[in-house]
């Protein structure tokens, strides 16, 4: 049963067509990988899924209802969360504060001007639990800008997880990480697998092929190949373009 | 700190200290060679600067035409008093509401903007309001201003205080200042204030977390304009008049300058520090030379270039260095470790 479904998504910037026609359907609980060369439009596709880019054609259905063209905040409220390829954290906030503002319980109080945030132990505990789940349990009080690169990558995901999403879109989560960091992140995402629906853009083949249930290859604004990791390794297109070469 | 840390206290020691020191001002202000009226100005401009900093420091929205809201409040105070009711609370409410309404009007046009575009639009709107105040002679009195605005008695139901005397006026505006400080402190430490701070740091991420960034920006523009208008009302009452010049570009620039110099970007109290430094510098340096703005302007440029965190931020930095000097190296290394 498809939880999120893109149907004929077409995106252009001026007269430049970036997405010609993307069709993608992700089942509930599936981990769906997306790969493709730089500039293929993977980030643009995520921007379209989450509302910051409006498609000029096509539909996006979440649980059957069309969400294409809604604003980012409206889509987020429906349960679609994303992480950013270029890390987008609240640098003046601590790790805990970064996660806290992402909690639905916090969002429900967004226009509350009476009570102070400090001293709200329920929110703090919930934020700390999310931090612990990505291995940042000991870093709650540290300013986001003082965390190491790997820790910031983990926090980037923690913020999206704190939204309690139904669909989690990860845009190149291992970008910039070394082998150790990538392995640690693979463990983390492996632990999430099955608990929620994940769409992950990733260039690290080993990472993607070991984790994904299915993978779509985007090129020239279209899905040019799709299948399970095993199927894709045999796919002539993937072989020819050397995208499938991994150890 | 503006939005970066939260404080659950309703009243802090810093507040109490500030109020106490300010409360003694009439006792020594003449002795140190300053005009007593400067106290009234400091307190009113502090309210204005705190309201302004709700946009600049808390939300990261650079408003360079904020004088419009201050001025609208000043006129509204006089007009309410002349045409609706010669009651101080009604007139102050008039100033607050007029500021809020002007903020809503402007906000509807600019709340979807950010950065330099936001700043340019605020300048444009500031000029529009200023032009209206000059041209709409029948209402504002044009260049001649709105005169004979009364310092209305402070009616508290059972008792009523006369504030025509400068010292009495000073204690009234100080009491009002205390209330405004408590309200704004609460606001910046609330979930709402936290979201404004998140918007300052990343509008994109905040939107993708499910917050309607436009609505938050519009609401804080209205709030900031309302409190600025309120300060303008107090100012009109103190000066017994309202003139277009509080709305001009230079005057709008002053509030930006005061707030930045004081350290509004990093501290709740920064705007107040900036107002105090600026107004005292005006009187002290201004007594010695006509070119005092040159000196203050130079100081401003140097500060923005080398210490953008302002006086409050620099003080904080020094305090932190001092503390870290006595901290154990082990604590430091665990925080700066990277991997
Ligand atoms: N807002 C935009 N305006 C114009 N061009 C854009 C915009 N966003 C992305 N592009 C262009 O679209 C193409 C795809 O970019 P992107 O989606 O970031 O690719 P990928 O994530 O697959 O590397 C790139 O050529 C990029 O320059
Ligand atoms: Mg990309």
Describe the protein in words.
The complex is a heterodimer of chains A (247) and B (339). With 247 residues, chain A is α/β, with parallel strands linked by helices. Chain A folds into two domains: 1-79 and 165-179 and 192-247, P-loop containing nucleotide triphosphate hydrolases (Rossmann fold), CATH 3.40.50; 91-163, no CATH class. Helices cover 34% and strands 25% of the residues of chain A. Chain A is built from ten helices and ten strands. In chain A, the strands form two sheets. Chain A has a six-stranded mixed beta sheet, with helices on both faces. In chain A, strands 2-1-4-5 form a four-stranded antiparallel beta sheet, with helices on one face. In chain A, a hairpin with a 2-residue loop joins strand 4 (57-62) and strand 5. The two termini of chain A are 33 Å apart. In chain B, helix 2 (37-58) packs across helix 12 (270-288) and helix 3 (67-83) packs across helix 10. Chain B has helices spanning 13-28, 37-58, 67-83, 88-110, 115-135, 137-140, 166-188, 191-201, 203-208, 213-239, 249-262, 270-288, 292-306, 310-326, 329-336, and strands spanning 154-155, 160-161. Chain B starts with 12 loop residues before the first helix and ends with a helix. By secondary structure, chain B is an all-alpha fold. In chain B, 72% of the residues lie in helices and 1% in strands. Chain B is built from 15 helices and two strands. Chain B has a domain at 13-248. Chain B has a two-stranded antiparallel sheet with strand order 1-2. At the A-B interface, helix 2, helix 4 and helix 6 of A face helix 8, helix 9 and helix 10 of B. The complex binds adenosine-5'-diphosphate and magnesium ion.
């Amino acid at each position: 049963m498809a939880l999120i479904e893109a149907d004929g998504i077409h995106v252009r910037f001026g007269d430049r067509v970036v997405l010609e026609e993307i069709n993608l359907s992700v089942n509930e609980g599936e981990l769906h990988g997306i790969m493709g060369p730089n500039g293929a439009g993977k980030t643009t596709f995520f921007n379209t899924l989450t509302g910051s880019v409006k498609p000029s054609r096509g539909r996006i259905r979440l649980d059957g209802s069309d969400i294409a063209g809604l604003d980012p905040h409206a889509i987020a409220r429906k349960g679609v969360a994303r992480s950013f390829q270029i890390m987008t954290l609240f640098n003046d906030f601590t790790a805990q504060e970064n996660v806290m503002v992402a909690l639905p319980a916090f969002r429900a109080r967004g226009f509350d001007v009476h009570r102070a945030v400090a001293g709200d132990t329920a929110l703090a505990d919930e934020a700390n639990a999310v931090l612990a789940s990505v291995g940042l349990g000991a870093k709650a009080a540290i300013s986001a800008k003082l965390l190491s690169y790997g820790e910031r990558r983990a926090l980037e995901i923690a913020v999206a997880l704190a939204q309690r999403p139904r669909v989690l879109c990860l845009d190149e989560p291992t970008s910039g990480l070394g082998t150790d960091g990538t392995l640690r992140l693979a463990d983390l995402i492996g632990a999430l697998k099955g608990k929620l629906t994940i769409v992950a853009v990733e260039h690290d083949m080993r990472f993607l092929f070991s984790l994904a249930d299915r993978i779509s290859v985007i090129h020239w604004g279209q899905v040019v190949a799709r299948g399970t990791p095993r199927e894709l390794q045999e796919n002539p297109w993937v072989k020819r373009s050397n995208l499938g070469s991994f150890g | 700190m503006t939005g970066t840390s939260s404080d659950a206290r309703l009243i802090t020691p810093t507040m109490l200290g500030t109020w106490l020191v300010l409360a003694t001002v009439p006792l020594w202000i003449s002795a140190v060679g300053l005009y007593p009226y400067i106290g009234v100005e400091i307190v009113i401009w502090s309210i204005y600067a705190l309201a302004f900093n709700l946009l600049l420091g808390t939300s990261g929205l650079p408003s360079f035409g904020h004088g419009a809201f201050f001025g609208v409040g000043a006129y509204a105070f006089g007009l309410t008093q002349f045409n609706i009711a010669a009651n101080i609370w009604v007139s102050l409410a008039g100033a607050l509401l007029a500021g809020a309404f002007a903020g809503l009007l402007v906000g509807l046009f600019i709340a979807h903007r950010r950065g330099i575009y936001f700043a340019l639009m605020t300048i444009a709107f500031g000029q529009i309001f200023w032009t209206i105040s000059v041209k709409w002679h029948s209402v504002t009195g044009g260049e001649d201003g709105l005169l004979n605005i009364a310092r209305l008695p402070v009616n508290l139901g059972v008792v009523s205080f006369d504030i025509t005397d400068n010292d009495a006026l000073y204690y009234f505006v100080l009491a009002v200042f205390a209330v405004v400080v408590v309200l704004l402190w609460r606001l910046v430490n609330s979930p709402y204030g936290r979201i404004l701070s998140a918007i300052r740091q990343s509008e994109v991420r905040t939107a993708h977390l499910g917050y309607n960034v436009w609505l938050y920006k519009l609401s804080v523009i209205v709030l900031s304009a309302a409190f600025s208008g309120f300060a303008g009302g107090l100012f009109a009452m103190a000066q017994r008049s309202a003139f277009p010049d509080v709305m001009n570009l230079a005057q709008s620039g002053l509030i930006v300058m005061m707030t930045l110099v004081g350290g509004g970007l990093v501290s709740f109290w920064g705007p107040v520090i900036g107002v105090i430094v600026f107004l005292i510098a005006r009187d002290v340096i201004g007594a010695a030379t006509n070119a005092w703005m040159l000196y203050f302007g130079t100081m401003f440029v140097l500060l923005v270039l080398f210490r953008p965190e302002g006086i409050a931020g620099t003080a904080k930095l020094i305090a932190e260095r001092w503390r870290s000097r006595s901290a154990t190296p082990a604590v430091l290394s665990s925080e700066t470790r990277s991997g």
